[in-house]
Write a structure and sequence with these properties.
- The protein has 286 residues and is an alpha/beta fold.
- It has a single domain, classed as Vaccinia Virus protein VP39 (Rossmann fold, 3-Layer(aba) Sandwich).
- Helices cover 47% and strands 13% of the residues.
- It contains twelve helices and seven strands.
- The chain has a seven-stranded mixed beta sheet with strand order 3-2-1-4-5-7-6, with helices on both faces.
- Strand 2, helix 7 and strand 3 form a beta-alpha-beta unit.
- The chain is globular.
């Protein structure tokens, strides 16, 4: 989600959120705004029987979508708890077609949301929102290409206040970035955050045991994104990622796996929707 060619990744994640909202009973994550962000010519088709059949038959896609949705649920739990403790800034890195600000109008006046992503991704998203049937609460859009643009230059040009605590989330983006770009951005986040700020971040984990089905799911996903010109570029062991955060002054307070996500968010589901491949997400405090 960090170049014009990668808009398909932002759209694909949003499309899965829309499909599970429309066709899971109950949805794992209610995201009506993801439905509004669908291309106009797809929206009605995906609402109907063909969309339902497509979604219900693609159980390999469920495995990846379950990870993405579980990570979003965890990040939102962290943000909402932070708001109750007085934090009033939320920065979403690699936001893509995120819908947090639209889904939480009740936080207007209590929380200012900033979405950071490539300007072309943001342009398309704003076009889709402009055509929505209702007027959404919009975040502050901060245009950044993580490979070539410094986050600090753009974020400090917005109403963001680096002297006040904030929550930063950085989800489902790191695989597409080089290790150098990840390290630079983490350093910038550290320099942009006041003490007691929080970072929620998931990362692609290497050297973990896999079943044959998980290998097939991950191979299919890797080949799909590579065919779209979005090859994976980074993976970490848990120790490597904790050390990377520690080098920038972040102490990990939660380090969840796919099993943790399933226990928290999918334990009572009977339809099999869950985080079906290995996943790691951390909460870290400055």
């Amino acid at each position: 989600m960090n170049s014009p060619d990668q808009m398909s990744t932002a759209e694909a994640a949003s499309r899965w959120r829309a499909l599970q909202t429309l066709h899971l009973d109950p949805p794992a994550f209610v995201d009506d705004w993801a439905v509004h962000l669908l291309p106009h010519d797809e929206r009605d088709a995906l609402r109907g029987a063909a969309g339902r059949a497509e979604f219900l038959s693609n159980t390999r896609g469920w495995a990846m979508s379950g990870v993405g949705v579980g990570c979003l649920l965890f990040a939102e739990d962290v943000v909402l708890a932070a708001v109750e403790s007085g934090v009033d800034q939320y920065v979403i890195l690699g936001a893509g077609f995120d819908t947090f600000a639209m889904r939480h109008p009740e936080l207007t006046g209590r929380l200012t949301t900033f979405e950071v992503d490539h300007p072309e991704v943001q342009r398309l998203k704003r076009q889709r929102l402009a055509a929505a049937p209702a007027s959404p609460v919009l975040p502050h859009f901060v245009p950044v290409d993580f490979e070539v643009t410094l986050l600090s230059e753009q974020l400090l040009a917005s109403p963001y206040d680096a002297a006040r605590p904030a929550v930063f989330s950085w989800l489902n983006t790191l695989p597409y970035l080089t290790p150098a770009a990840i390290a630079v951005t983490l350093s910038e986040i550290a320099n942009l955050t006041a003490p007691n700020s929080i970072l929620v971040c998931n990362y692609p984990c290497k050297d973990v045991p896999l079943t044959d089905e998980q290998r097939a799911v991950l191979r299919n996903n890797r080949e799909s994104v590579a065919a779209r010109g979005e090859p994976f570029q980074s993976r970490f062991t848990p120790d490597e990622f904790v050390a990377l955060l520690a080098a920038q002054g972040f102490a990990v307070t939660d380090h969840l796996t796919d099993h943790d996500l399933n226990d928290r968010y999918y334990a009572n589901r009977s339809d099999g929707f869950c985080a079906g491949v290995p996943a790691r997400i951390v909460r870290a405090r400055k």
